């Protein structure tokens, strides 16, 4: 395990996590949202995550587990890991109140109502905390994937980075409207993304010496389930709430197309 590999894996994780700051920056450039733009962005993110999960990550997990346990048992373990990931993220979403859940973003019109600054600030802070909770396992998965296979690590990092951009919007908007401070809104959004490189550090110090090929395969399968759940249950429905149905679908298809081309180029 070379120092260059460690730095590369950590750099990918940092890149993915700090994409929340990019989302915050984009949101703060405009006083009002463009609903169609946000709908297309969310759809694009969903397309990237669905494609890379089902085409790349699931297949890598199956190959890894099949090498350890044989074709049929390995396939069953991959399927089990996939649905275990769905169960995990479903439980996390269930435990976070919907008003503070970053994957259940309030519609733009809600921000235009005369809500109290305290309520808006609370929404932003809880969103930052909730996103940090979600980002931690994402950072761990990105780091482990990059250590095992740099190409797969890049694919996961790109998908998660795109996914994190609208999450940055979810944090910065209510905080900005509560404080009228772009600096504070950007800082808190940026800070929440640091949960991903922290997850990478935990992965290195606590898990790297204990995980074998089978465990890596199971983690990959679970990550695929997590990303598909987020896309279908949260990102795509939210995209349709913001804009027209076809805007969200066009974004979805564009996300799949971009990810497919990038995977072919990196193959």
Care to describe what's here?
The chain has one domain (3-266). The protein is globular and about 55 Å long. It has 267 residues and is mainly α. The chain is 85% helix and 0% strand. The two termini are 23 Å apart. Helix 2 (19-28) packs antiparallel against helix 8, helix 3 runs antiparallel to helix 10 (213-242) and helix 6 crosses helix 9.
What is the total tally of β strands?
0
The major pleated sheet works out as:
none
What is the end-to-end distance?
A: 23 Å
Beta content comes to under 5%
As residue ranges, the low-confidence spans are 105-115
Q: What would you call the structural class?
A: mainly alpha
Mean of the pLDDT scores? 76
Please provide the ordered H/E string of secondary-structure elements.
HHHHHHHHHHH
Tertiary shape: globular
Quickly count the helices.
11
Number of domains: 1
Question: Cα-atom Rg, whole angstroms?
Answer: 18 Å
The percent range for helix content is over 70%
Short description:
Helices cover 85% and strands 0% of the residues. With 267 residues, the protein is mainly α.
Annotate the secondary structure layout:
Layout: H1 3-17, H2 19-28, H3 35-69, H4 71-95, H5 108-112, H6 117-148, H7 150-179, H8 182-192, H9 195-207, H10 213-242, H11 245-266
Helix pairs in contact: 1-6, 1-7, 1-9, 2-7, 2-8, 3-4, 3-7, 3-10, 3-11, 4-10, 6-7, 6-8, 6-9, 6-10, 7-8, 10-11
């Amino acid at each position: 395990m070379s120092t260059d590999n460690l730095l590369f894996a950590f750099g990918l994780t940092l890149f993915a996590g700090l994409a929340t700051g990019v989302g915050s920056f984009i949101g703060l450039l405009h006083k009002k949202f463009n609903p169609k733009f946000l709908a297309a962005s969310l759809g694009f993110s969903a397309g990237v995550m669905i494609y890379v999960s089902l085409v790349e990550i699931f297949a890598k997990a199956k190959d890894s587990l099949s090498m350890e346990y044989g074709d049929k048992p390995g396939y069953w373990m991959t399927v089990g890991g996939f649905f275990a990931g769905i169960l995990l993220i479903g439980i996390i979403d269930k435990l976070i109140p919907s008003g503070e859940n970053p994957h259940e973003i309030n519609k733009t019109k809600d921000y235009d109502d005369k809500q109290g600054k305290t309520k808006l600030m609370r929404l932003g802070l809880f969103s930052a905390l909730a996103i940090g909770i979600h980002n931690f396992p994402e950072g761990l998965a990105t780091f482990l994937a990059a250590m095992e296979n740099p190409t797969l690590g890049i694919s996961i990092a790109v998908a998660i980075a795109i996914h994190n951009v609208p999450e940055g919007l979810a944090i910065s908007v209510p905080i900005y409207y509560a404080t009228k401070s772009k600096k504070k809104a950007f800082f808190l959004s940026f800070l929440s993304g640091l949960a991903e490189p922290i997850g990478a550090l935990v992965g290195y110090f606590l898990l790297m010496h204990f995980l074998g090929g089978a465990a890596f395969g199971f983690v990959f399968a679970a990550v695929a389930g997590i990303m598909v759940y987020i896309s279908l249950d949260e990102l795509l429905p939210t995209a349709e709430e913001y804009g027209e149905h076809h805007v969200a679908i066009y974004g979805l298809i564009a996300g799949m197309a971009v990810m497919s081309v990038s995977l072919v180029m990196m193959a």
